[in-house]
Write a structure and sequence with these properties.
alpha+beta; Aminopeptidase; 4 helices; acyltransferase activity, transferring groups other than amino-acyl groups; N-acetyltransferase; Acyl_CoA_acyltransferase; transferase; GNAT_dom
Length: 205
Amino acid sequence: MYEICPETPADEAEVESLYDLCFAPGRTALSSYRLRDGVPRVSDLCLVLRDPTGILLAAIRFWPVRVGGRPVLLLGPIAVHPTAQGEGLGGLLMRDSLGRARALGWERVLLVGDAPYYSRFGFSRLDHVVMPPPTNPDRVLGLELSPGAWVDVTGLVSRESPSNDQAGQGRIPPGTRSASACITVDHPHEDTDAHPIATGASADQ
């Protein structure tokens, strides 16, 4: 069993250490970080996954950005500890966080990553969305959380205004699990096919 919870300030040092372990030095100089600089994270969607002993095994973060003036979730970074890669933990975080995003009323998600891996979650190439350089256009991928959400949304990805409240884009429907709740999940029995793991593949490579 694992526990998935929203990241808290007490988790931040561990999460940053995990990202330092999983990503190459200089990760904060990449274009995705320029979009995040000075902009608060979407806190309800930044999640940590811990084993029964409390060890941090995986983490995912989301940030608000704009494309053509429209609100977009930028997924990443996502990282899985090297000792747990290939076990499907990245997939657990992806599916849970995207479900929470949908419940909060977000309509579209953007990431920069490997299409063969992220296509299993419904992501596909965005031909008319441009990340700041240097970014390979083949790795700019999007997911619709509501039908047609990416239709006619084109242009350069830009920073969200730090003053905008992007914690949620809509009301949580009645009967929906709170987006801020912790959950326990079983060890995954999928995404263990030796395909490249999610670590480092979203908006940070």
